[in-house]
Amino acid sequence: MRVFAFVGCVIASAFVWQSESYSQAQPKKSTAQEQQGQAAQSATPITLNLTVNPTIEKAPCDEECQRAEQRKNTREEDGLKTQMSATDAAWEAIKLNWFQAAVGAITLFVVGATFHQTKRTADAAVAAAKAADKSANAAEQQAESTRLNFEKTERPYIYVFGPKWFFVNPIEPGGLEPWAEYCIANFGKTPGRCEKVLLKMNICQTDEPDPPSPAPLDNNAVVNPVFEPTRRDDASRIRFPSEAPQFHDIGVINDRVLVSPILNPGDRVFLQIWLMYRGHFEQTYETRVTWIWDGSLRQFVYFRRDDPKYNRLT
């Protein structure tokens, strides 16, 4: 709309300027015509009712006056022609300026219309690009969400279930060395392979246990590291440390004697089992479990269960 208003102003200004130029040129033409008429009137001879004596000769000044008059008329005619030529040239200039103003207005209109059309096209292209980018991002997020949900569903979940008591069995070879039992099982839908098995049982007087060490080569998870979805190792054993204190019996379960260690004041018994394993997606998962012996309950309990440093399931 601004372009159309500007074009209208340009055309109106051109017409006003043309009218003023023509009105200035027109009086000059009228003045020249009046001068021509006056010259013609002055050149018209005046008839006098006089009787000229043919015997009297013309005065020599008459011829000179006629020639002067003719020269005057010639000059006036030349001036009139010059003014007419100037008026025609001014009119031609006015028409040329009007034509140039019209061409400029049309050109400006075409340029403005082209600019607006180009801007609308560019805005539409930008909007389409933004919509396509938004759609692509939404599709990517949906694909990522689907992948994560699939991995969470179709992956192994290898857990460790902790021991409760210490056992001895006098009729077994080496059965008098107390041990604890723990369970490893895969509750996921796909197999998992144990890449690293760390475990340790130690007695110390510190508030936190020492880091676990690699499991011995005869450990079940080391000998057979692949855990199928149906695999469950229920009777994995870990021996009490060699510096074991004295024990006293607390009961019997399935021909096995339950014992409780007699600890010195300040002694703590920690048991740690950490597993690092992989699934089909080559992503590493981790299971950490840490227990501490509770002398009052005479069984193992979780040590700092909410601390991911010691208890973690990923």
Low-confidence stretches: 24-58
What is the CA–CA distance across the termini?
65 Å
User: Into which percent range does the helicity of residues fall?
Assistant: 40-55%
Question: What sort of overall outline do the alpha carbons produce when their principal axes are compared?
Answer: rod-shaped
- How much of the residues is beta strand, in percent? 25-35%
How many separate helices?
3
Q: What does the average pLDDT come to?
A: 79
Query: How would a crystallographer describe the biggest sheet?
Result: 7 strands, antiparallel
What class would the helix/strand composition place it in? alpha+beta
**Rg, Cα atoms, Å:** 60 Å
Q: Based on the structure, what is the oligomeric state of the protein chains?
A: single chain
Order of helices and strands: HHEEEEEHEEEEEEEE
Number of discrete domains: 2
Number of strands: 13
Record the SSE blueprint:
Layout: H1 2-43, H2 60-153, E1 158-161, E2 166-168, E3 179-186, E4 192-204, E5 213-214, H3 220-223, E6 226-227, E7 232-239, E8 247-253, E9 256-261, E10 268-278, E11 284-294, E12 299-302, E13 312-313
Helix pairs in contact: 1-2
